[in-house]
Amino acid sequence: MAVPGLQLADLSIGQVFPNFSSQTSEQSSEPPAEKTHEIGKCREWRFEVAFGSTVEVKLLRGTAEIFGTELPTGHKFTFTGCKSAIFTWEGCTLSVTGNPTVEYTSEETPMTSYSNLHFALEKLRAIAGDFPVAQGPRVMIIGPEDAGKTSLIKILTAYAVRQGRKPCVVNLDPKEGMLSLPGTLTATSFSTIMDVEEGYGSSPTSGPSPVPVKLPLVYYYGLESPEGNERLYRALVSRMALAVSSRLSEEDANRTSGCIIDTSGFISQTTGYDLIQHIVAEFSVDVLVVLGSERLYSDMARRFEDRQGTVTVVKLAKSGGCVDRDEAFMRTARETAIREYFFGEPKRTLSPYTLTVGLNEVNLWRVGEANSIGASVLPIGIEDTQALLERTTPTSLLQHSVAAVLHSEPGDSVEVMAESSVMGFVYIASVDEQKHYMKILAPVPGRLPPKPLVVSSFPEPTASLVG
Ligand SMILES: Nc1ncnc2c1ncn2[C@@H]1O[C@H](COP(=O)(O)OP(=O)(O)OP(=O)(O)O)[C@@H](O)[C@H]1O
């Protein structure tokens, strides 16, 4: 696991991967006790596992699913750094090895209403199948932070895939990446099962995986909130909508399956509501699901009143299992996502390549952040002039940041560059301003392609990759 040039050769694998050390120490001490849980019909076993510890779960009898994806009987799944639930429609027996920080069985779940929503969407898909140009439902889920939007999207996607559909899942929440790093917006066509340990699954950069890899289309946004650079966010939403609509017209299975859109929990009544309206218009959303907020539901019902017949606003209850994730948990999750992009995870390790690049060779840009005034609060007639991207020079301040390599040419305009998809990411390991070079980690060997690199403040720099 030595990475040339980064003095990692002398480090033990435990220093590079804290998770490895915890596993090793668990293995060397007393093996954790195995417990058996009997879960009754329509109940769910909720559990939380801290980063650095692991819990193994095996389905012994019956049927069970994690956010819609069925668990096979007898297969051991390992969980770390997660808050999750195993639901059963018919009752099941689970074997659990390890110590979850929280675990309990709940009788009250909103799964019946979630599955009703799925069957309603299936009806719309069937209707779309009867007409040669009609599209399946374009569903968008909105709600406050930690309301369970992403979990509901996983459930709807998994159920659709189980019925042979190929829904296009769009993540417009930059806080968490879907099959990519945080700070990105992605769209992926799902036709195969999700990886219950990994969340959505793995992409081609994750290395060999027993679950078929997904191919995400990724755009770089680089900020946590859509309101951080509203102009860039809107431009990326429009670009993504075009890509998704061309994907939906490619194949009948994609067209009839439609798309499911995840959104950010940051929703202010000023710019947030306008952004929702922008997404609805760009993606031609026809089903707007409001999760866990009466007030947001009533505001949306009023806003889309005059579009009855084209946009249906649906209210759903939040699951009692949804947990608020504090900043420390989210920060560790972001660090883990970055580390896994370059180094893989304990089951599938990857070795990134170290490249030395002259500071004058890089075409470096930064996401515009200075003007945080949203367009909707600007006086009428004044255009939102917030920069999409700004030219920048590599300095030591960029050390330990991730940079996106764009599918764009050096001579492209800023507008074209900002809306270009992401080729991959590099990690800026060190910058030597005196000697005019920097060391970067890249997932592939060879020279850094002569493409624009973009950096930003989110996800924040993380030193844990280089010890
Ligand atoms: N039924 C459940 N039981 C246990 N944990 C759950 C359940 N539903 C969701 N969670 C957990 O609660 C947390 C928040 O859920 P989720 O990510 O779906 O919310 P969200 O609305 O998408 O959040 P955000 O707005 O921050 O993106 C996640 O860690 C998720 O795994």
From TrEMBL:
Coiled coil: none annotated. Its main location: nucleus. GO terms for molecular function: ATP-dependent polynucleotide 5'-hydroxyl-kinase activity. Residues 350-459 form the Clp1 C-terminal domain. Residues 143-343 form the Clp1 P-loop domain. Pfam families: Clp1, CLP1_N, CLP1_P. ATP binds at residues 44, 83, 146-151. Keywords: ATP-binding, mRNA processing, Nucleotide-binding, Nucleus, Transferase. Residues 39-126 form the Clp1 N-terminal domain. InterPro entries: Clp1 (IPR028606), Clp1/Grc3 (IPR045116), Clp1_C (IPR010655), Clp1_C_sf (IPR038238), Clp1_N (IPR032324), Clp1_N_sf (IPR038239), CLP1_P (IPR032319), P-loop_NTPase (IPR027417). It is found in: Nucleus. Required for endonucleolytic cleavage during polyadenylation-dependent pre-mRNA 3'-end formation. Polynucleotide 5'-kinase involved in rRNA processing. PANTHER family: CLEAVAGE/POLYADENYLATION FACTOR IA SUBUNIT CLP1P, POLYRIBONUCLEOTIDE 5'-HYDROXYL-KINASE CLP1. Component of a pre-mRNA cleavage factor complex. Interacts directly with PCF11. Belongs to the Clp1 family. Clp1 subfamily. This is Polynucleotide 5'-hydroxyl-kinase GRC3. The gene is CLP1.
